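TICKET: design request
STATUS: open
ATTACHED STRUCTURE:
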């Protein structure tokens, strides 16, 4: 009933469901492309939806770029692979992309299928234009080398944290900027802004996924920097215990504050995009990130279970994000929601407030703000509106399926 208690989210949810059905009908007939798009839906349904914002040629390039990096990440994450085997694979992965005969079985579930049938990804890669191939090769080479470095190195300092996130996500920002440029749809964005686009998303995911990652069996590597968490606990895993809740939340707020430093760069990057399909592709995940930061901030539930944006709000963001006005409005509202949760007794509160105020100032100075009414808490709507929403859903589905 969560979504139904918010009538403004119901139509967006219906549109999202229809879009998901359209994706399945648009999967190409060729085996390699069919595998690529089917696998994309299985390893990331949200990305499979967002990628539909792009034109066909660029969509194919980004799809393969994503799957290549997912495969590389699968090798990095598989703790059963000995380092003397793993390191050469990571460093040489950019070469394997050109070889449809190369195969290395690892990972689990959908990721194992991706690795077992990686020849199909390679086949699709070889059909891309040379500009796309070179961009994907460059980023895969640099990312593989960076991953190899951190296999043998823990994330101790904030500089380490930034460097690791650069290798696994900032380089994705570089790659997307290069793919946009290769497609002739955008000027080549600066590396600093491209890097921040990746770091903001990656840091948000690292924060949100703390409990899932710390409880993973076999034990996975953690990327919260010791420089931050050691101020609040003797061991990173201590933060999940209820008796350490106060310190855990303080550490969480420190981590969110660290992530917020990238938000203004992200706004600058998005404001320079010329092509609306590229813009929507980039903007939707960034709004999700600032919204997730607002949800996670000062929220002990990050250490107790799954904390994420509700589906109805996600659907609204996907449906309503069409211009920089929408982006500025979303960043302003989510930053304001985060600001309302700041406790002045929190050790990071002054810096958090400073960064939130800078984001809000950038959004306000655009002159493009409009009210979206995004909320993260319980609905304010009454039961009568719930009934109206149900009636609206019935009408929409009736019209859609009558066609």
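STATUS: resolved
RESOLUTION: sequence designed for all positions
ATTACHED SEQUENCE:
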């Amino acid at each position: 009933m969560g979504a139904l208690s918010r009538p403004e989210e119901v139509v967006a949810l219906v549109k999202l469901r229809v879009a998901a059905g359209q994706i399945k009908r648009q999967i190409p007939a060729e085996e390699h492309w069919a595998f690529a798009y089917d696998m994309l839906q299985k390893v990331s349904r949200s990305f499979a939806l967002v990628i539909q914002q792009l034109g066909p040629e660029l969509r194919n390039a980004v799809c393969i770029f994503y799957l290549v990096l997912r495969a590389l990440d699968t090798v990095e994450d598989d703790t059963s692979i000995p380092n003397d085997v793993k390191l050469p694979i990571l460093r040489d992965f950019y070469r394997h992309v050109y070889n449809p005969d190369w195969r290395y079985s690892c990972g689990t579930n959908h990721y194992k299928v991706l690795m077992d049938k990686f020849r199909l990804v390679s086949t699709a890669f070889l059909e891309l234009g040379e500009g796309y191939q070179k961009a994907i090769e460059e980023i895969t080479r640099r990312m593989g080398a960076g991953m190899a470095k951190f296999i043998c190195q823990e994330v101790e300092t904030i500089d380490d944290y930034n460097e690791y996130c650069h290798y696994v996500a900032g380089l994705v920002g570089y790659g997307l900027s290069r793919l946009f440029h290769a497609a002739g749809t955008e000027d080549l964005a600066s590396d600093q802004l491209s890097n921040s686009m990746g770091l903001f998303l990656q840091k948000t995911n690292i924060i949100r996924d703390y409990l899932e990652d710390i409880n993973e069996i076999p034990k996975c590597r953690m990327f919260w920097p010791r420089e931050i968490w050691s101020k609040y606990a003797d061991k990173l895993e201590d933060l999940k215990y209820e008796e350490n809740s106060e310190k855990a939340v303080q550490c969480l707020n420190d981590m969110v504050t660290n992530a917020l430093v990238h938000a203004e760069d992200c706004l600058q990057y998005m404001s320079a995009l010329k092509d609306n399909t590229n813009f929507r592709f980039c903007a939707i995940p960034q709004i999700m990130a600032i919204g997730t930061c607002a949800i996670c901030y000062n929220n002990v539930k990050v250490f107790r279970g799954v904390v994420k944006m509700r589906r109805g709000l996600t659907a609204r963001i996907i449906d309503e994000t069409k211009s920089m006005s929408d982006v500025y409005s979303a960043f302003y509202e989510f930053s304001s929601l985060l600001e309302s949760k700041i406790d002045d007794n929190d050790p990071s509160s002054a810096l958090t407030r400073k960064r939130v105020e800078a984001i809000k100032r950038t959004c306000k100075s655009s002159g493009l703000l409009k009210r979206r009414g995004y909320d993260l808490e319980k609905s304010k709507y009454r039961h009568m509106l719930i009934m109206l929403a149900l009636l609206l859903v019935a009408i929409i589905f009736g019209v859609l399926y009558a066609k």
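CLOSING REMARK: The longest helix spans residues 158-182. The chain has a mean pLDDT of 90.
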